[in-house]
Write a structure and sequence with these properties.
- About 50% of the residues lie in helices and about 0% in strands.
- The protein contains 19 helices and four strands.
- The chain is extended and about 110 Å long.
- The relative contact order is 0.06.
- The mean pLDDT is about 85.
């Protein structure tokens, strides 16, 4: 379902990232990164939506890595090489996922079910016999749907339809069998002649239930529409009738259970009046009530026993650690940070670091770097020693096509290309002569950015284009008025 949701949203990266983070997808290739590493790279790449966005985003990361030069740091170079290898592995993973799907925006139902079959064969995580049964059941259902449904539509609509079809799919469901616990609603209970029957939820708030009608569709309206629609005012009587039927059909003892205290808010609850009615008819007198806690303190569960209940089996902690090793790393870091002594997680490297001595004049400190060191040494350690930068959070703004950063980057590139072109021609900016040239270059930049940042809201796109046109006209007007300035360089780096 996650695979089809990803397709149905137009390949929204958030869906694929969620699949990877939850461990619901596997990459069996020998050199493939872990799913959580793929999620980290996609988040770092700022992938938004669209098939082509993944390629453009990974290209941007690769370009950034190529522009990063630290010849004096061997360890840094090794890290960059490892990043390149992970990027290449993510490219192969994405190429395989997209190879399952047709390149055209429209398809037929069978083609999309075949894509689901390929996805299950290559990317379904198998960790237990239940997963194997689920895989077989899903593949059988997909094959049947592909052979019986013959429709064509867009990929998104077909994928959404498949998601709906699998929403109620069940695996390893079966009828009541000897030696197994069978669970059924009250209206279907009693027909398998079990020797022991237990009824739960017989408190006054749940049984037999209220007789209030549905305010959206009253019982009178239900009767007028169809005689098959159930009526709300008769439900309490039906519940009582089914319970009496069950008691009459039961071949053995029937145990009725009612909670005495709500686990959600701790409030006391009371049994249904049905208990008192049965006690009177069977001359049982006052029904005995089970105490909420064991009378003897030694019979109560201690903290260790209570915690054991929450673990499915022995060795579950080790199994979780083997499956998600970064959780153990995080727990180690947390314990070290809470420890009163200095550890490597506080910035203590355990060895002399003369290369970080600020009194030797290297590296040269900027004003902002000194402010960071004085304000928070740990932040300085993360930012300037470990060079850790948090990923930018992308928020979808329906009123703008370009973010402020992308908007400014487009204008910088446009103005540089425009001025370099005039410098090659030996000309100076002129409003009348060069307006068409600037507009032509602007259109080219807009098309380049449309490939990297797909247009999702046409109104926002048109609004940003008008802002770009206005900015370009202002730039040309200002430059044309500069008669005593000779430009010699554009977008030159400065500083150390």
């Amino acid at each position: 379902m996650g695979f089809y949701k990803w397709i149905g949203t137009g390949f929204d990266a958030n869906e694929l990232i969620a699949l990877c983070r939850a461990g619901l997808i596997a990459f069996p290739e020998g050199d493939a990164p872990e799913p959580y590493e793929v999620a980290q790279i996609l988040t770092r790449a700022h992938v938004t939506q669209g098939r082509d966005q993944y390629t453009h985003a990974l290209n941007r990361i690769e370009t950034d890595l190529q522009d990063t030069e630290h010849p004096e740091e061997q360890r840094r170079q090794e890290q960059i090489q490892a990043d390149f290898e992970r990027l290449a592995a993510v490219r192969r993973i994405l190429d395989r996922l997209f190879s399952f799907l047709p390149k055209a925006p429209e398809s037929d139902f069978k083609t999309l079910t075949q894509a689901g079959l390929q996805f299950l064969q290559h990317n379904a995580p198998i960790r237990s016999p239940i997963d194997t049964s689920a895989l077989d059941s899903l593949m059988e259902r997909l094959t049947l749907l592909g052979e019986t449904i013959h429709v064509s539509d867009t990929l998104q609509r077909l994928a959404t339809r498949l998601t709906e079809l699998f929403a109620n799919h069940r695996v390893e469901t079966a009828a009541a069998q000897p030696g197994h616990l069978a669970i059924a609603p009250l209206e279907r209970a009693g027909y398998t002649h079990r020797k022991h029957i237990y009824l739960v939820g017989l408190d006054e708030g749940s049984f037999p239930g209220g007789a209030s009608e549905d305010p959206l569709l009253l019982d009178g309206e239900r009767t007028a529409l169809s005689a098959e629609l159930s009526l709300h005012r008769t439900r309490p009587a039906e519940q009582v009738w089914h319970l009496i039927r069950l008691l009459g059909m039961a071949p053995g003892p029937v145990t009725l259970l009612s909670a005495r205290r709500s686990l959600a808010d701790g409030r006391e609850s009371y049994p249904s009046a049905f208990f008192q009615q049965m006690a009177e008819q069977m001359n049982l007198g006052d029904l005995p009530l089970l105490p909420p806690l064991p009378e003897a303190p030694e019979d109560a569960l201690d903290l260790t026993e209570t915690m054991l209940i929450s673990h499915p089996s022995e060795g579950s902690a080790q199994a979780i650690q083997d499956r998600f090793p970064w959780l153990q790393s995080g727990a180690t870091a947390r314990r070290a940070r809470e420890h009163p002594g200095l550890t490597r997680f506080d910035g203590f490297l355990g060895r002399p670091t003369p290369e970080l001595d600020l009194t030797k004049g290297q590296p040269v400190l900027s004003a902002s770097r000194l402010e960071t060191l004085a304000g928070c040494p740990y932040r300085y350690f993360l930012a300037y020693i470990l060079r850790i930068t948090p990923p930018d959070k992308i928020e979808d703004d329906p009123t703008h096509w370009l973010s402020p950063l992308d908007f400014g980057a487009l204008l910088h590139r446009l103005f540089r290309r425009f001025m370099e072109t005039l410098q090659e021609r030996g000309e100076r900016p002129d409003r009348d002569r060069h307006a068409d040239l600037l507009d032509q270059l602007l259109r080219q930049e807009i098309e380049i950015h449309k490939e990297e940042i797909p247009v999702q809201h046409q109104a926002a796109y048109r609004f940003d284009v008008k802002r770009l046109e206005t900015a370009a006209k202002v730039f040309l007007s200002v430059e044309a008025d500069k008669t005593d300035v000779e430009p010699v360089g554009f977008e030159l780096s400065f500083g150390f």
